[in-house]
């Protein structure tokens, strides 16, 4: 097995962009359902307008240049090609930190965090808070795709991240993530507790809520916590379908998403609308639409809708299943959309910091980069 780390540069052939434009020009659109609202899925009128912008306003080459301004690399670990950003701070005493994205995200999620975290001096912060950043694409996602074999569990990904950090020469470091990255990061602490100084997650850790809650238990919760229980119940009733499909038939789903840019766009935008905050606002009013489309492009251009969905299929136990406590200090920030409740976080993580905030959604790095950056800095300040 080679341990070589190879510089990487994104260079999408023009023929692939021409093919995308042709598919957008000739897309076969479904008729709008009655009301054409979000309750039945992504509204046709809204998606048509976004697709028109994708075709005629969005500029991939600009996004490609911006991504290529960041140091990118690939390396093979455990038989899998891993693509990652490695952005070192100008501060000599910066602390290493590995950031892990989720689904339907990518490394694009973290673009607004890179400058403030690596160079706080240039962004009005304390240079003592500087980080060296490692930002990998999850196996099967983007330029870490496709995957060649089964078994890419959270535990295996964590072991891969530990090997990646070792190859980069980092003996002690922190881990941060949300969504699926919020499962990988604590697992990295369990895999390498002697090397991981701290774990920071946005969204929550540990078990799912033990639904349904008895009435007396609901009555003992705060109003904030009761709201989170109600929204979790609504999620299980109204939104769980995508998990059922991706965790049981990811290949069947992939045929449509890899062949149709409209299908890929709709599948991802559905979640950006549901999980951004406030929910009734269209996602491109919360997150810059160019950034949204660049994230979609990493799925489309690499044809990884199926292998990214496979991350759910590959898990051998349910997310949130109780695990051994690593003893690694863990910080949690729960934004307004997310539903974690401290008392149900379980005992698998040594939670030393828990903060609930009244704004922001599931895509914290995209929606509230300043607040997330601040919380990451504060959490790791005493752990360096």
Give the secondary structure arrangement, pairings included.
Blueprint: E1 5-8, H1 14-25, H2 44-56, H3 60-68, E2 72-77, E3 80-87, E4 95-100, H4 111-118, E5 131-136, H5 154-167, E6 173-178, H6 181-191, E7 196-202, H7 215-219, H8 223-238, H9 241-246, H10 250-259, H11 261-275, H12 289-302, H13 305-313, E8 329-334, E9 350-356, H14 364-367, H15 369-380
Parallel strand pairs: 4-5, 4-6, 6-7, 7-8, 8-9
Antiparallel strand pairs: 1-2, 2-3, 3-5
Provide structural commentary.
The structure is a single chain. With 384 residues, the chain is of the alpha/beta class. It has helices spanning 14-25, 44-56, 60-68, 111-118, 154-167, 181-191, 215-219, 223-238, 241-246, 250-259, 261-275, 289-302, 305-313, 364-367, 369-380; strands at 5-8, 72-77, 80-87, 95-100, 131-136, 173-178, 196-202, 329-334, 350-356.
């Amino acid at each position: 097995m080679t341990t070589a780390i190879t510089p990487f540069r994104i260079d999408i052939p023009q023929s692939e962009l021409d093919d995308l434009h042709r598919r957008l020009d000739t897309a076969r659109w479904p008729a709008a359902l009655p009301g054409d609202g979000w309750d039945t899925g992504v509204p046709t009128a809204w998606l048509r307008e976004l697709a028109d912008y994708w075709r005629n306003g969005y500029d991939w080459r600009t996004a490609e240049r911006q991504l290529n301004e960041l140091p990118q690399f690939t390396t093979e670990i455990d038989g899998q090609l891993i693509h990652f950003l490695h952005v070192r701070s100008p501060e000599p005493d910066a602390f290493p930190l590995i950031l892990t994205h989720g689904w339907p995200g990518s490394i694009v999620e973290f673009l607004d965090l890179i400058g403030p975290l690596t160079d706080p001096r240039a962004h009005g912060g304390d240079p003592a808070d500087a980080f060296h950043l490692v930002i990998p694409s999850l196996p099967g996602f983007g330029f870490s795709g496709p995957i060649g074999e089964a078994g890419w569990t959270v535990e295996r990904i964590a072991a891969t991240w530990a090997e990646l950090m070792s190859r980069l020469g980092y003996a002690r470091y922190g881990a941060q993530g949300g969504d699926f990255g919020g499962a990988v990061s604590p697992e990295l602490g369990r895999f390498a507790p002697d090397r991981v100084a701290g774990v920071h997650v946005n969204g929550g850790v540990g078990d799912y809520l033990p639904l349904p809650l008895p009435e007396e238990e609901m009555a003992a919760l705060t109003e904030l916590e009761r709201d989170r229980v109600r929204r979790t119940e609504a999620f299980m009733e109204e939104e769980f379908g995508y998990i059922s499909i991706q965790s049981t038939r990811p290949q069947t789903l992939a045929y449509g998403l890899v062949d149709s840019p409209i299908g890929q766009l709709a599948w991802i935008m559905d979640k950006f609308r549901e999980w951004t905050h406030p929910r009734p606002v269209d996602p491109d009013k919360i997150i810059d639409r160019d950034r949204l489309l660049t994230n979609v492009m990493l799925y489309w251009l690499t044809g990884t809708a199926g292998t990214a969905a496979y991350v759910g299929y590959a898990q051998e136990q349910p997310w949130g299943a109780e695990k051994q406590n690593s003893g690694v200090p863990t910080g949690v920030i729960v934004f307004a959309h997310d539903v974690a409740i401290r008392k149900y976080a379980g005992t698998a993580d040594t939670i030393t910091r828990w903060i609930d905030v009244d704004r922001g959604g599931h895509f914290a790095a995209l929606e509230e980069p300043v607040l997330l950056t601040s919380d990451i800095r504060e959490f790791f300040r005493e752990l360096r």
